[in-house]
Hints:
Elements: E1 3-7, E2 10-13, E3 18-25, E4 33-39, E5 46-51, E6 58-60, E7 68-73, E8 78-83, E9 92-99, E10 116-117, E11 121-126
Parallel strand pairs: 2-11
Antiparallel strand pairs: 1-3, 3-8, 4-5, 4-9, 5-6, 7-8, 9-10, 9-11
Amino acid sequence: QVQLVESGGGLVEAGGSLRLSCVASGITLSSSTMGWFRQAPRKAREFVAGISSDGGRTTYADSVKGRFTISTDSAKNTVYLQMNSLNPEDAAAYFCAADSTSAGERISRITKNYDYWGQGTQVTVFL
């Protein structure tokens, strides 16, 4: 049984930082592309960042490029999202997702290409 469990969300002042974690069980990160998505109220879920199975390639949404960093720790089977310089537009529920069918090569920005999802962790940014 595959499980993705996010943590690290919370309330932060604009300009501040948070680090999200996603612990995976039932899959190994070395065989899956991992992604972070977010969904604000009344908006569609959108791609934030992705990392290849070997950790060698990353890609980001333009809105977070230069501020967010995705990384993995294979020993802990955990993927992280370091978020800096947060602004109110970053407020959303953040979801970890695994694409286990691409052999780790594709980093998709499309939700339907990810077959496993976590329950989400809420990020709130105040001025």
